[in-house]
Design the sequence.
């Protein structure tokens, strides 16, 4: 059944930039009531001002999702302001581009904290409200924006891949569990996404494979895919040509994909050039 988001309350994390921001713009245009969260108070306020000029019903709720108190407070404020919660979209994330052997435990823990633990604990807080939405026939959903790295390990992105594999695994588990609550659980797998500000996303930038961020897929393309997945209720969608081929190849030709990854790592093993930005 196609999902109607008109009048539905949608909470979007990582909404101050990138995929989250662009998804908010599209969903607001479709008539959704949009709650935005992120760490940047100024950026969120600017987006709210812009969207309200179009007549959108939107509000910002700045929060640090790695803090349990902030997660609880965020959901309470959203529900109090809009009268409920129908859809949660997890877009917030961070990455690290570098070799595992020269990385640090602090980087691994920070990536996992933001990409995995913060997102799943926010889901836990939202479950009662999403369940209540289901009793009203509102088709509640959790849409997790992971990465094709959650289906295929990429050299020089060990922490990122680990966090996204964990996120994908939990998403699949919740999909089965949440049937009893009437909550749809959807998964989005974009490829390499062109960042608004690369330095805000990368904890390290010294990987020894070539990643061309200038040639990466635009955040607008991913946001379009996100909205399509939500409206069409697609359980899993790889977004973009490269992501789709990696997703398809890993399923159908796993040895070929492993060979390509090994070759990619060996080819640039002695490179010291940073990722293009």
Sequence:
């Amino acid at each position: 059944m196609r999902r109607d988001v008109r009048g539905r309350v949608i909470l979007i994390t990582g909404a101050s930039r990138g995929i989250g921001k662009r998804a908010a713009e599209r969903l607001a245009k479709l008539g959704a009531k949009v709650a935005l969260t992120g760490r940047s108070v100024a950026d969120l306020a600017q987006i709210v001002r812009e969207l309200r000029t179009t007549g959108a019903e939107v509000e910002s709720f700045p929060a640090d999702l790695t803090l349990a108190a902030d997660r609880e407070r965020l959901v309470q404020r959203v529900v109090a302001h809009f009268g409920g919660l129908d859809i949660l979209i997890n877009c917030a994330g961070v990455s690290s581009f570098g070799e595992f052997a020269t990385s640090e435990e602090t980087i691994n823990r920070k990536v996992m904290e933001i990409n995995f633990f913060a997102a799943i604990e926010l889901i836990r807080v939202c479950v009662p409200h999403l369940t209540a939405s289901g009793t009203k026939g509102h088709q509640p959903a959790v849409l997790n924006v992971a990465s094709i790295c959650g289906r295929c390990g990429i050299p020089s992105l060990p922490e990122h891949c680990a966090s996204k594999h964990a996120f994908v695994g939990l998403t699949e588990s919740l999909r089965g569990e949440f049937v009893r609550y009437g909550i749809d659980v959807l998964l989005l797998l974009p490829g390499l996404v062109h960042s608004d500000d690369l330095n805000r996303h990368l904890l390290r930038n010294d990987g020894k494979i070539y990643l061309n961020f200038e040639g990466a897929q635009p955040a607008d393309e991913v946001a379009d895919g996100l909205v399509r997945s939500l409206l069409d209720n697609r359980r899993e969608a790889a977004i973009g040509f490269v992501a789709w081929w990696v997703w398809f190849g890993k399923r159908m030709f796993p040895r070929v994909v492993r060979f390509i990854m090994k070759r990619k790592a060996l080819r640039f093993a002695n490179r010291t050039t940073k990722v293009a930005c």
In short: Residues 10 and 247 are 28 Å apart (CA to CA). Confidence is low (pLDDT under 50) at residues 272-277. The beta strands are 9-12, 33-36, 57-60, 87-90, 95-97, 141-145, 184-190, 202-205, 236-239. The first strand starts at residue 9 and ends at 12.
